[in-house]
Write a structure and sequence with these properties.
The structure is a homotetramer of 197-residue chains. The first copy, chain A, has 197 residues and is mainly α. Chain A contains nine helices and no strands. Chains in contact: A-B, C-D. The structure holds a DNA duplex (21 and 21 nucleotides).
Chain lengths: 197, 197, 197, 197
DNA sequence: CATGAATGAGTATTCATTCAT
DNA sequence: TATGAATGAATACTCATTCAT
């Protein structure tokens, strides 16, 4: 396995870069091969097709994100800190893997066609994990009963993702701490200042 | 002008459908022409290029959204109802124009290259409008001072967009009212149930 | 007729310019129409097709050249001055109508196909006139008997044409007198300096 | 390299044929591929573009002509026989490569645009070689001092080219020897018969 | 295991021509 | 007579994929 992966890593990283810069359709196997410093045939030898290479990337990424999230969640023992951990992990992951996140948003949330099944599994898999947390939160009384759990889950995901992408991609300077604090505060208590008279 | 636009409308609608189904790259001018029931050359006669057709769509759409939002915002006289109106208008717009919203999310928030300038204008234009509202809210004491306005603006936009897309595209059944109420409540007071002891 | 020609002149001149700049294939009817300041349909109304417009140009031009040459030739009464006149007229014509000459050389001497018949008529028509002069010259003893009349005729035509084109198109500065004298001297007595010992 | 060129030769020859028959614009890559018996993609794999394929042809051809001319010129030791050799070589080359010569004349001497630089280099390169010979001839007293060297060079080139093309392309029967003798005699001593009383 | 030359289906774009007004 | 919107056939070029070495 270690041997088999010898060429896989450079391909993987080159592919991530190119896919995130160009999107799936505009990215070319030639460019990926060139950036990986290997021959085009080698990509086909290892991954079989462009689509399959892309899907491997997608899967690998979401697995890492889910694994990281689940691990941190498991380490907390109440629902509030679990949700805090989720926000932290996802924001951190987005900052660490800007390219992947761009790909995730634009190719999974957006198109219908070529990887319906895989995309669907990714999307609903990750969102389900969040929704389950929300449900537990509602059951335990932390979270308002009248909030629709599904909507809340996707709203949370969207809020983190778009905010992160917008900061990480389009703002030259940003304070990671500010973003994290804003998102946490936003999520738990909303924007309204209750102290006012 | 009315005469000149005779063929523009069917092109416009066919293009929106195809672009949203396939994404910019995968969409073909042939298919757009066929669905519009006109000859391919006519698209080029009217729009010059596939890219330009796409850009026209993008611009037209964001203009409609901004116009609708600004109009409703102007009709309210305090910042809270203005923000409520914003959420309502955007959610309504997303429900009315599912296709457009898919395109907006995946082609504007996502890729870097081909329409940088236009995309940037769209993105920052709409987000600026939101951020300005947030700033006013902070100044008037409605919104917590410690929230970063830019992050809050993109978080709000992301929360509405992703939640809407997720419901409208992937759930067969959904209650528009539930989504609207959840998002409003989420935005203003967060998820936490303060009544608990 | 005068009325019919009202729009023909601007078309004619625009067409000459565009055809000479781009060549027949690369020239577009759109550009000709635009430069002529008229609608594209008008060209078709007047000339029927791009090819026909081009052929009209070709014919009109060669007619003018032949007419001018024949007129000057008729005014001389010996074969030597007739040939001198031919050289002068053709050189002058090339200087006056650089664009036309470019078209003539590259579209008539060069391609086989689309106007075979017309091109052939133009080519052999003009060359025949020259050859006839050469034959007369041979009969009268002015021109060496052993020269092949056909070859001499095309050599004369080629010598003037290419020299003229090269000077008029590619040299920023040139002396018309020098060219004319060089060509005349070259034609009649060759390059060799007989005075040398 | 030998392996890399495996497909280059058939492409080269097919391209020469098609370009000379149709001219650059009218020639299609499809037809070249078909005549070469290879796939269209292979042409792009090897040459990058239609224009580049064409330019390669142009360059290769003029190199062969120049090489042949220089070799023969170098073998003679006086300027008269050098010039005789030049005429012979160019006439022979035109007879051997009718197609190439058609292309050369109509695409290099004719249009302004797409290969300005390359065309200019070809044109002025070959003509310079001739002009240098003429200059030497003038310096040595063989050639009349009053002839403009540049004009004489292009006149010589044009005389050979057009005469050759006209014979080789449009006359079914021709005597190569007659053409050669006529051109030589014409060039050195002109058409005038000095023996006459 | 790795390569890269060769392929050909697929696509954006151009432009001469037509025709209703 | 003149127009210009509409057309669709034609064409350069791209790129995922294959396969002989």
């Amino acid at each position: 396995m270690a041997r088999k992966r010898r060429k896989k890593l450079p391909i993987f990283e080159a592919a991530m870069t190119v896919f995130s810069e160009k999107g799936f359709e505009k990215a070319t196997v030639d460019e990926i091969a060139e950036r990986a410093g290997i021959a085009k045939g080698t990509i086909y030898y290892n991954y079989g097709s462009k689509k399959n290479l892309f899907l491997s990337l997608l899967e690998e990424g979401i697995e890492r994100l889910e694994t990281a999230a689940k691990k941190e969640i498991a380490r907390r023992n109440n629902i509030r800190t679990k949700l805090e951990a989720l926000i932290t992990v996802q924001l951190q992951f987005f900052e660490d893997h800007k390219n992947y996140c761009k790909v995730l948003l634009s190719e999974v949330w957006g198109r219908d066609t070529p990887w319906e099944e895989k995309a669907e599994r990714i999307r609903s898999g990750y969102l389900s994990m969040i929704r389950d947390l929300i449900e537990v939160g509602k059951a335990e009384g932390l979270i308002k009963k009248r909030l629709d759990a599904g909507t809340t889950a996707s709203a949370l995901f969207g809020m983190i993702s778009i905010a992160a992408l917008d900061r990480f991609l389009f703002e030259k300077e940003y304070s990671y701490e500010d973003i994290l604090n804003t998102l946490r505060s936003f999520f738990f208590t909303g924007v309204e200042d209750k102290r006012r008279t």
